[in-house]
Amino acid sequence: MKKNKIKKSGILLIYLIWVNIVFVSLVSAQVIKDEVEELKGVDVEEHLGDKIPMDLRFIDDSGNEVTIGSYFNQEQPVLLVLGYYKCPMLCNLVFNGLIEGVRSLDIKPGEDFQMVAVSINHREDFNLAAAKKANYLTAMDIPSAEKGWKFLVGDSTQSQALADAVGFQYRYDEEIGQYAHPAVIYLLTENGTISRYLYGVEFKTNDLKFSLLEASEGKIGNTIDRIILYCYHYDPDSKGYVVFAGNVMRLGGAITLIVLSVFVGLLFYRERRKKNQQISVVVH
Q1: Owning domain of residue 29
Q2: Same-domain pairing of 104 and 181
Q3: What's the pLDDT score for residue 176?
Q4: What is the residue-wise DSSP string for the chain?
């Protein structure tokens, strides 16, 4: 009896220590974010369900003036990335992670979805955008991406308006001449509605695919893809798609009902056929 009490006390103590560590970590992270000068003003404020302004004007990687809206209303979702092309580290990590993720998909940019990169640095021109595009297309090695991935530059008022619309909060550090910004990509529907945010510098195949299927509202992917997506939902805590037990059970129940219906139908058919044969023998 005494041993059980000691064991329970030990378990409780470990639990309290774990809760304390988690709490301190969360508080410390917030304090660090608030105290470190470079991180002030850098954040993501999610605007899920909002539409971005379609009339914002940019210059594409061919030197043509375009509106952001020209990449929408094509019955395809749009994967949007904000950053800048001379970024010494973080943007490259995001782009490289995105390339790896997209290469693993069985749906392709330019065929099933559009990709758009927008520079937040108004000092960058379309020649730099074209050079970056060429490098990233070589690394991606997907022919359809040539027409499916655009790199844009433009006036700071336009990139700032787009950043505000998607909640991308960044700041320019005058001392080092660089931008501090979060690592995030955006999935938008064909009409420019923000559907999903994916964070980090690595993007899992399932997270990318499911978010694109979700943003397409069922217009891309095959029937199996849609069935699989039905069984998953996005969990903001884990920053990814996880199995949704309720839908799995409903789907399993529906499949079971179909199988039973077919089985009962076959039994009924065989029984009826057997009776018909017996009647036929009696008549003859």
Answers
A1: 2-35
A2: yes
A3: 87
A4: -HHHHHHHHHHHHHHHHHHHHHHHHHHHHHHHHHH-GGGTT-EE---TT-B--TT-EEE-TTS-EEEGGGGSSSSS-EEEEEE-TT-SSHHHHHHHHHHHHHHT-SS-BTTTBEEEEEES-TT--HHHHHHHHHHHHHHH--TTHHHHEEEEB--HHHHHHHHHHHTEE-EEETTTTEEE---EEEEE-TTSBEEEEEESS---HHHHHHHHHHHHTTSSS-HHHHHHHHTEEEETTTTEEEE-HHHHHHHHHHHHHHHHHHHHHHHHHHHHHHHHHHHHHHH-
**Tokens coding 242:** 């996880």
CB-based contact 83:230 (threshold 8 Å): no
**pLDDT per residue as tens digits for the range 171-206:** 999 888 999 999 999 999 999 999 999 999 999 998
The two beta strands, 168-169 and 171-173, are unpaired
Whether residues 237 and 264 share a domain: the answer is no
| Tally of domains within the chain | 3
Distance CA 260, CA 244 (A): 24
Whether 39 has a pLDDT exceeding 70, the answer reads: no
Q: Are residues 80 and 202 in the same domain?
A: yes
**Residues 120, 155 contacting (CB under 8 angstroms):** no
Strands 184-188, 78-83: pairing kind? antiparallel
Q: What is the pTM of this model?
A: 0.69
- Domain identity same for 73 and 99: yes
The answer to whether 22 and 14 are in contact (CB under 8 A) is: no
CA separation, residue 252 to residues 42, 138, 217, 259, 261 (Å): 44, 43, 23, 10, 14
